[in-house]
Amino acid sequence: MNIQGLDYNTTRRRLELPEYGREIKKMVEHALTITDRRERQACAETIVATMQRVAPGQAEGEEARNKYWDHLALLSDFKLDIDYPSSPDEARRLHTKPERVAYAPQDGRACHYGVLLFETFEKLRQMPAGEERDTLARRTAAIMYRCLRDYGLGNADEARVADELAYYTDGVIRLDPETITVAPYAPLKRPAEKKKKRK
């Protein structure tokens, strides 16, 4: 529906810093059109003073004041040619998007085990046979059992844990399901509700 004279925020351009509102943005756009440098500087100082009233900061002092100048640089897309009290490099750093984090690939069928357990599987594959490897294998099996139980994946039993441990260690670790000991399940206790005292 398009009614003449009505203007909705959904049809307008997105604001970089919505806490200051569209009026501050219009003031910044007006400052960009001023050709006289002294007049443009005075306009910028007025805008910063208005920004402090519209969105007062938590802290006082020079650092808080510089924050408003950094925001002015962001609102003007760094095109406002004025004398900033401090370099707007910090604002430029905040304005740039960080690089995308590359996540390590996981086996999607067993994401409930997590990266650390898969690192343990790799360590178990490389360890020499002995008491140390057997102890680590039993502890790993107990953690696997808890993961299966806690994430509600159904049949969290010792046979399944033994099969998956053998699968993820390429057959190096083969445990008897009866030797897998798991602590008894203790559901989380909810805090008791306090009774309201009657006055």
How many strands?
0
How far the N terminus sits from the C terminus, by CA atoms, comes to 56 Å
What coarse outline follows from CA principal-axis ratios?
A: elongated
Class computed from helices, strands and strand pairing: mainly alpha
- Percent helix, as a range, is 40-55%
| Global Rg | 31 Å
Q: What is the mean pLDDT?
A: 79
Report the β-strand fraction as a percent range. under 5%
Order of helices and strands: HHHHHHH
| Major pleated sheet | none
Query: Low-confidence spans: pLDDT under 50, at least 5 residues?
Result: none
Count of helical stretches: 7
Structural summary, described in words:
α1 runs antiparallel to α2 (37-54) and α3 crosses α4. Helices cover 48% and strands 0% of the residues. It has seven helices and no strands. The chain has 199 residues and is mostly helical.
Annotation keywords:
single chain, 199 residues, mainly alpha, 48% helix, elongated
Secondary-structure blueprint of this entry?
Blueprint lengths: L20 H13 L3 H18 L7 H14 L13 H7 L18 H13 L4 H20 L7 H11 L31
Could you provide a short overview of the structure?
The protein is elongated. The chain is an all-alpha fold.
